[in-house]
C-alpha cells in the first residue's frame, strides 16, 4: 500500500474552529460563531504564555550598550525622522509638541535610530531636538512599541566583550532596588527585567563603554488568530493540544455538558506537549560541599 509522501498538513484557523465545534457536538454556522472562536483562540495563546510554553518563539536579540545608559527595551523601538545628521548615540531627544523624551541607543542611519522606551509618545510631524548636540529634525511617524510589547519574558543573557561571552545574573526587583549606587560604572554583571506593558531591561553596573554587547534570548507571544484563512505559527506536535484547548474554551460558552470531558482531554494533551517542549540535555548532580564535609 502506497503512502502519501506528503508532510504538509497545516490546519488554518477555520479548520481548528470547525474541529472544536464538532468536538462540542455543534456546527459552525454564523460569522459570529467564527468570531467568538477566534477570540477564544487568542485567549488560549495567552494561557499558553502563562504556562511557560512557546519554545518555538524564542528569539535572540543583540543590543550594543551605551556608556551611561542603564535601561534598554526588551526588543527594538525604531524612531523614523526626516534626517539624523548631527545626532549622537547616547544623547537625549525631546519632542517639541509631546515633550516626550528618550535616548538614542544605536548609531543613527540616514533617517532612523533605535531608542530607549520613551516617556510619553512621539507624534508625527513634531519637531525633535537633541539634548547634547542641539540638532533638530522632524518626526516622520510615531514609533511602534509592538516588538517590545510582544516580549513575554527574558530567559538568559550574556555580555560580549572582545569576542568573549560572559554570563550575567538576573536579579529581582528588590535586589535591584537595594543596589546602593546605581551609577557605578563597569562591565554589566547583573540585570533586572521590569515586566511592564513595554518591558525594560535594567543592567548594573552602568555600562562603561559603547562597545560591549548584551545578547539575550527572549520569549515572544504567538501571532494572533486574526483571520479564518490564516495558519498559526505553531509546530506540528502542538496541533492536538491546540484543537483540544479551543474545544474546551468553546464548551465553556456553548456546550456546558462537555466541559469536564474536554477540559480533561485538554490538560492531558497539554501535559504531553509541555513534556515534549523542553531542552533534552544530560543532568549533572553535584553534591553539596557542606553535606559532604558535615560542616
Describe what you observe in this structure.
This protein is α+β, with helices and mostly antiparallel strands. It has three domains: 9-54 and 223-243, no CATH class; 58-70 and 151-220; 78-143, no CATH class. 27% of the residues lie in helices and 25% in strands. Strands 5-4-7-8-3-6 form a six-stranded antiparallel beta sheet, with no helix packed on it. A hairpin with a 2-residue loop joins strand 9 (151-161) and strand 10. Helix 1 packs across helix 5 (239-254).
What are its keywords?
about 300 residues; alpha+beta; 3 domains; 6-stranded antiparallel beta sheet; 4-stranded antiparallel beta sheet; 7 helices; 16 strands; about 25% strand; globular
Q: How widely separated are the two ends?
A: 69 Å
Strand order, largest beta sheet = 5-4-7-8-3-6
Extended strand count: 16
Q: How much of the residues is beta strand, in percent?
A: 15-25%
N-to-C order of helices and strands: HHEEEEEEEEHEEEHEEEEEHHH
Helix coverage percent = 25-40%
Largest sheet: 6 strands, antiparallel
Gross morphology is globular
Radius of gyration: 24 Å
Enumerate how many helices there are, as a single number.
7
Question: What's this model, at a glance?
Answer:
The chain has 295 residues and is an alpha+beta fold.
Topology:
Elements: H1 13-23, H2 31-50, E1 58-64, E2 71-73, E3 78-81, E4 92-95, E5 101-103, E6 112-114, E7 127-130, E8 136-141, H3 146-149, E9 151-161, E10 164-167, E11 169-170, H4 173-177, E12 185-186, E13 190-194, E14 200-204, E15 206-207, E16 213-220, H5 239-254, H6 259-276, H7 289-293
Parallel strand pairs: 11-13, 12-15
Antiparallel strand pairs: 1-16, 2-14, 3-6, 3-8, 4-5, 4-7, 7-8, 9-10, 9-16, 13-14
Amino acid at each position: 500500500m502506497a503512502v502519501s509522501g506528503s508532510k504538509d498538513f497545516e490546519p488554518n484557523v477555520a479548520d481548528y474552529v470547525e474541529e472544536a465545534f464538532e468536538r462540542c457536538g455543534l456546527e459552525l454556522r454564523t460569522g459570529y460563531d467564527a468570531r467568538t472562536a477566534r477570540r477564544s483562540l487568542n485567549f488560549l495563546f495567552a494561557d499558553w504564555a502563562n504556562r511557560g510554553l512557546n519554545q518555538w518563539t524564542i528569539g535572540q536579540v543583540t543590543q550594543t550598550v551605551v556608556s551611561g545608559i542603564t535601561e534598554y527595551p526588551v526588543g527594538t523601538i525604531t524612531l523614523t525622522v526626516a534626517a539624523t545628521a548631527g545626532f549622537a548615540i547616547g544623547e537625549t531627544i525631546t519632542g517639541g509638541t509631546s515633550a516626550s523624551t528618550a535616548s538614542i541607543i544605536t548609531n543613527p542611519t540616514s533617517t532612523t535610530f533605535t531608542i530607549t522606551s520613551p516617556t510619553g509618545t512621539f507624534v508625527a510631524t513634531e519637531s525633535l531636538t537633541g539634548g547634547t548636540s542641539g540638532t533638530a529634525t522632524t518626526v516622520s511617524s510615531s514609533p511602534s512599541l509592538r516588538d517590545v510589547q510582544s516580549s513575554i519574558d527574558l530567559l538568559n543573557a550574556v555580555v560580549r566583550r572582545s569576542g568573549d561571552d560572559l554570563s550575567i545574573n538576573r536579579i529581582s526587583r528588590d535586589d535591584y532596588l537595594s543596589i546602593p549606587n546605581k551609577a557605578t560604572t563597569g562591565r554589566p554583571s547583573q540585570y533586572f527585567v521590569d515586566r511592564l506593558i513595554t518591558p525594560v531591561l535594567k543592567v548594573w553596573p552602568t555600562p562603561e563603554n559603547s562597545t560591549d554587547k548584551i545578547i539575550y534570548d527572549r520569549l515572544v507571544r504567538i501571532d494572533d488568530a486574526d483571520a479564518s484563512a490564516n495558519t498559526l505559527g505553531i509546530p506540528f506536535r502542538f496541533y492536538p493540544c491546540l484543537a483540544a484547548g479551543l474545544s474546551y474554551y468553546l464548551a465553556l460558552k456553548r456546550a456546558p455538558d462537555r466541559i469536564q470531558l474536554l477540559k480533561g482531554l485538554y490538560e492531558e494533551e497539554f501535559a504531553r506537549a509541555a513534556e515534549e517542549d523542553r531542552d533534552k540535555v544530560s543532568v549533572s548532580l553535584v553534591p553539596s560541599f557542606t553535606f559532604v564535609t558535615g560542616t
